[in-house]
């Protein structure tokens, strides 16, 4: 026995089939495949008149993917984490740091 469930599930009363006659015709499309460095294939459908981008993010791993499976784009390397001292060393040499340290110590000692 159906136990009180109706025969039509997931539809409103009075709704009919929704086909192309109600929505209109679909735009002409083209499918483009993109491959990432891990060998994943991502297929994207574009309108025929749309410009196809040179790269697309892989749905599986997030690496950049290109349309040529033999020439996949290389992921941009991210800069390593750098501490505050690392940034200071990038801007100043060791000699400059020694001079600044000696000036700061002289101020603290009251000799300047």
UniProtKB/TrEMBL annotation:
Cofactor note: Bind 1 Zn(2+) per subunit.
Pfam families: RbpA
Cofactor(s) the record lists: Zn(2+)
Record: residues binding Zn(2+): 36, 40, 58, 61
Disordered as annotated region, ranges: 1-25
Record's keyword annotation contains Zinc: yes
Keyword line: Metal-binding, Transcription, Transcription regulation, Zinc
Highest taxon of source: Bacteria
Record bears the keyword Hydrolase: no
Functional note: Binds to RNA polymerase (RNAP), stimulating transcription from principal, but not alternative sigma factor promoters.
Subunit structure: Forms a complex with the RNAP catalytic core and with free principal sigma factors.
Family according to the record: Belongs to the RNA polymerase-binding protein RbpA family.
UniProt name for this protein: RNA polymerase-binding protein RbpA
Organism encoding this protein: Kitasatospora herbaricolor
Gene: rbpA
């Amino acid at each position: 026995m159906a136990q009180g469930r109706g025969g039509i599930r997931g539809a409103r009363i009075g709704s009919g089939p929704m086909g192309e006659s109600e929505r209109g015709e679909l735009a002409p499309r083209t499918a483009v495949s993109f491959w990432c460095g891990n060998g994943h294939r991502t297929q994207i459908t574009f309108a025929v008149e749309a410009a196809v981008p040179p790269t697309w993010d892989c749905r599986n791993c997030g690496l950049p993917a290109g349309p040529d499976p033999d020439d996949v784009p290389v992921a941009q390397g991210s800069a390593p984490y750098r501490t505050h001292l690392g940034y200071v060393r990038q801007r100043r040499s060791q000699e400059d740091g020694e001079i600044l340290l000696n000036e700061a110590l002289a101020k603290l000692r009251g000799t300047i």
